[in-house]
Specification:
192 residues, single chain, cytoskeleton, Methane Monooxygenase Hydroxylase, Chain G, domain 1, RH1, mainly alpha, 78% helix
Length: 192
């Protein structure tokens, strides 16, 4: 069984790998090799050779652990340096903020930042838009009234009523100075 494992590379091959290429399976293989060597120590006749192999393998495992620890310490130190650099940069940006734009820091939840170069930016306040829409709606309503009145003029409904109303007014006022004024009103209405 040992010969088959050694021909395939077996668990001993895990000891030859770089510590950074080890997998969980390799760790179990190393454990198996060390355990087997410990069993051979108690077996008897080949104790010196088994002891030398075990010593070599334990030293190799310790070297791997040292490499992993020093690599993780290096990575940890690099991360600390990066964190400190980012903190300094953040503090510098915070320090520049009040001098560059004091208004930005005082922005509250009801404030909005607008890019003046944006062609689609809002140009009116909400109240101004409401006022414009209300005025538009009033003008639309007036237009509808005028259109209905014009339609009535075209169909002749209003002119008959107006003629009757004018006659009643003439009778009531005694026909004083209404002829000239009435003709001007008729001319204006015809223009409309």
């Amino acid at each position: 069984e040992e010969l088959e494992e050694e021909e395939d590379g077996g668990p001993e091959r895990a000891l030859e790998k770089s510590p950074f290429q080890l997998t969980a399976g390799d760790v179990y293989d190393i454990s198996s090799v060390v355990g087997r060597d410990l069993l051979q120590l108690s077996a008897g006749p080949q104790v010196p050779a088994a002891l030398a192999r075990l010593q070599f393998r334990i030293v190799r495992v310790l070297e791997m652990l040292e490499a992993l620890v020093s690599e993780s310490s290096l990575a940890e130190e690099q991360l600390r340096m990066e964190r400190d650099s980012l903190r300094r940069e953040l503090e510098a940006l915070r320090g520049e903020g009040p001098r560059g734009s004091a208004q930005q820091l005082s922005l509250g939840p009801d404030k909005m930042v607008i890019d003046l170069t944006d062609p689609n930016r809002p140009r009116f306040t909400l109240q101004e838009l409401r006022d414009v829409l209300q005025e538009r709606n009033q003008l639309k309503a007036q237009l509808l009234v005028v259109q209905e009145e014009l339609q009535c003029y075209k169909s002749g409904i209003i002119s008959q009523r107006k003629d009757q109303t004018e006659e009643l007014q003439k009778v009531a006022s005694g026909r004083s100075s209404g002829t000239r004024k009435d003709s001007e009103e008729k001319t204006i209405i015809k223009r409309l």
